[in-house]
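Following up on my earlier thread - several people asked me to post the actual chain instead of describing it. Fair enough. Here it is, all 275 residues.
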Amino acid sequence: MLDALRSVFARIHRNIMPEMLELCFEPWNHPDKSLDQIIYEDVILASVRDDASRQGGKLINITLQMNWCKYTHSPSPVALGISGSYSTFLIPPEAREFRDIVCAVSVRMPYNISTNTTGTFFNDRVTAGNTVGSMACAALKAQTLAGTAVFPTADVQPGNVITLSPPSMNWVPWAVKVRLKFDDNFSGMNSSSIETFQKACEHAIKAYMYSHLRAKVESNVVLRGADIGVIREELQTYADAAEKYDEAIRNFHGAEILDKSRLGYILTKMVPFAH
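Reply from S.P.:
Thanks for posting it. Predicted structure:
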């Protein structure tokens, strides 16, 4: 969303002294780039984008496919009891809307698959009649949880690889809910999040400046004719910028809930089913 980025830089130049921006990012060392481009690459893309994506990136469900599986071998088959598993999946670009995956949120079974371990993907109550034997087995399972599957935990590895733990020797098409990384233009950001995004970027830049300029200022180094006293005084107001950035990122997650697709999902979970 280009409007979000334009508003970010408008806010930065309005709230941060231009002399301090130049002292920190040194545009004279990058004649092929503008000051805004340097800030964009060094701070917004390098740190803010990943944090914002983990908190408010688009949520999608990916149903794992068998042909995505990378059959891996355990380092100690004897100790682990397995020599390979359906636990490592390379997610193709078309399954993740041609964006990178930043984190996995949850794992579930597809709606048409039961959680029994009898070797079939279909619910026992559908395939079996209401016989005395089947009802007794169902009652026993309900008490002992013998037929309950173990839901794995998903983790995202570099290269858009999803790993499931604990590993499984049986094939199950798990549905993994993931968050996608924002693209370079932060496309898809909900309009309700723009103001919070602006604040997060401002605090991130101030925190970056505080860590990079503090040593120079404390050593009384005067660069390019800047008034060191004014710079030192202003820089001290950035001391808590990192904490304010963390708070803004948390608020960004809350603002993203107002997106219609997320809000609708949340509301359906809040409304109890009628009996």
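Strands lie at 59-63, 88-90, 101-108, 153-157, 161-165, 175-180. That should answer part of your original question.
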